[in-house]
């Protein structure tokens, strides 16, 4: 996979217009435990890393990138390289897919929500 010139330009524009900082602030407000574990620079690095990974999979709008970041939080920062996950999720990570990006993201978000439910169930079972 690679980032073509158009995707690189979109990523540059998103970063240039303050997207990275807005995404960081959003993640800190939605996940205060994340803010407690990582300083602003670390969260910015996560956003930048996630933005690049999202672009690789054809997610280019700010909304799509933020949703991809949410998936990364629940499935792991390199979930898209984990053979256990890619065996099932590969069609939804394919930028050449005939599915619209938002449809592919909806499936990824559902996978992330299912993972979060499993984590919560384990936590409650150990109490």
Give a brief outline of the structure.
By secondary structure, the chain is mainly alpha-helical. The protein has helices at 5-16, 19-30, 32-37, 40-56, 62-75, 83-93, 101-125.
Helices and strands in order:
Elements: H1 5-16, H2 19-30, H3 32-37, H4 40-56, H5 62-75, H6 83-93, H7 101-125
Helix pairs in contact: 1-4, 2-4, 4-5, 5-7, 6-7
Overview of the structural elements:
- With 127 residues, this protein is an all-alpha fold.
- Helices cover 76% and strands 0% of the residues.
- The chain has seven helices and no strands.
- Helix 4 packs across helix 5, helix 5 (62-75) packs parallel to helix 7 and helix 6 packs antiparallel against helix 7.
- 24% of the residues are buried.
- The model has no long low-confidence stretch (mean pLDDT 87).
Number of beta-strand segments:
0
Shape: globular
Helix content: over 70%
Order of helices and strands: HHHHHHH
Distance between the termini: 44 Å
- The helix tally amounts to 7
Mean pLDDT: 87
Beta strand %: under 5%
Major β-sheet, in short?
none
Poorly predicted ranges: none
Features:
globular, single chain, mainly alpha, 127 residues, 7 helices
